Amino acid sequence: YPTWKRTLTRRAREAQMKRFCKAQAIQRRLEEIEVTFRELEQQGIKLEKLLRDEDGTLADQKTQWMNQLLYLVQKKNSLMSEESDLMIAVQELKLEEQQWQLDQTLRCYMNKEESLKTPEDRVAEQQILVQLLEVVNQRNVLIHVQEEKRLSEL
Fold this sequence. Notes:
Elements: H1 3-53, H2 59-111, H3 119-153
Pfam families: bMERB_dom
Coiled coil: 23-50
Subcellular location: Membrane
């Protein structure tokens, strides 16, 4: 292998490992969010029971329980927003990986001597190019969705 091919191979492996590590971190965070959802749900159920069952409690106590319940709802909404962002990031990672694989396949066809290409090779090269453009467009849509979400939250 010439030096530039080894460098490209090493960089590709590094990028793949980076995507893998990012995917693992996202998966861990999604699991943490799921656990937190369950905990918030349990706390919310307890507060709702307290609010419904305790007719003779002080108004201050009921107000405090209502505030706690509203806080739980806000926290749950915040976690749902974070979960949505993470799901978009997962889709982005999948598309990134797909783009990398298509790019590698396309490079193989493009590196082939033009006189040695069969008509099937040319068709396959064009199909891969179309798929690659499709993936890039899908990634672009995800970026726009993220930007719109960010602007709506502001």
